[in-house]
Amino acid sequence: MNDPTSDTLQAALARYGLELPEDQLAQLDRYCRLLWDWNEKLNLTRHTDYDKFAGRDVLDSVQLSRLLEPGEEVLDVGSGGGVPGISLAIIRPDLQVSLSESIGKKAQVLDAMARELDLPTPIYHSRAEDLLEDFRFDALIARAVGPLWKMCTWFAPHWHAFGRLLAIKGPRWVEERREARERGLLRHVELRKAAVYRMPGTEADSVILKLRAKSSDERNSKPHEEEGDES
Fold it and tell me: Which residues pair with 98 in a beta bridge?
């Protein structure tokens, strides 16, 4: 067991094979301390030591960052305490990251943290699907905001407003896919595994799923399985 009082973020990242530039490391350290301070007033995270922050939050964000092209406009859906949105904005400063959060108090905290971190990250006190009425994004990113069927329901009228949805999921994703398929919500949606990596401290894998709307030609072609790996 790691002693959280003697640990450092750099050491925790090293345990998971993660190495970041010094400026990003310092900014992530500042962010997680802000997050922990705010967490004492408002429930934002269960990852309240460096090991969990590194092995869950930063690891997820690094894996996600590898799936995004330079300069893309990205919206974090239901950002909560800022993961993965704020950590992604730190790791990939070339991206144009925006955060959406429907709970007012959490949106205010996100805004305060972004300002203290000097991040050019717009914070919207809004549901993501409402933003998609007026904005378009290259990618939506989501972690722990709801099962696949709910996300597919939320975004069903808005697939034209973003290029793809990247959703971080645990081992239950197969069951979630079945639920969404049984509700007919994947009929016009392509779903692929874009990344697979071990969930620290477990024998299970985390996955990042990529969902996008099928083109009209794809909709009219012979049906195929949604669960194939990203090619």
Answer: 75
